[in-house]
Amino acid sequence: MLSRKLELALIKAIREAKSKKHEYVTVEHMLWGLLHDDQATEIIDKCGGNNDTLKERLEEFLVAGIPMLQTEKSEPSQTVAFNRVLQRAVNHVQSCGKKEVDTGDVLVSIFAEPDSHAVYFLGSEGVGRLEVVE
Questions:
Q1: What is the pTM of this model?
Q2: Which of 17, 43, 91, 128 has CA atoms 20 to 30 A from the CA of 112?
Q3: SS3 of 81, please?
């Protein structure tokens, strides 16, 4: 159901959270992973965003804004919002009759998390609100 490129972006996000020893894998990690995919970066670029600046701002946030794991052997947990974004993208793709979820579908789904810093960063980079039509 998930495209290979989306799987790679999500793996990158999870690995980033692990490498930084973060307690959670967040929507911001997800967006950071998407910024390593050509389709997502093209969408952001065409919507007026600056991918390099967005990535830098996300990296700063991930260093300062995410709690650290309390024990060495723990794994970061995916936040409820992280899972909601994925589930929303899957539901949208199923309702459209598409065969797989791609990075663009997840990027659009992120905008339905209005309290997310990821949405704030996208908006502050000039990326207009993308609407999911169901």
A1: 0.89
A2: 17
A3: helix
Write down how long the chain is: 134
By the 10 Å C-beta count (0-12 exposed, 13-18 middle, 19+ buried), 52 is classed as exposed
Cα distance between residue 69 and residue 104, in whole Å: 30
Q: Cβ–Cβ contacts within 10 Å for residue 7, how many?
A: 13
3-state class (DSSP) for residue 77: strand
Q: CB within 8 A of 94, min separation 6: which ones?
A: none
Q: Are 112 and 119 in contact (CB under 8 A)?
A: no
Please give the mean pLDDT across all residues of the chain.
89
* d(C-alpha 37, C-alpha 24), whole Å: 22
Task: State how far the Cα of 48 lies from the Cα of 59, in Å rounded to an integer.
Answer: 20
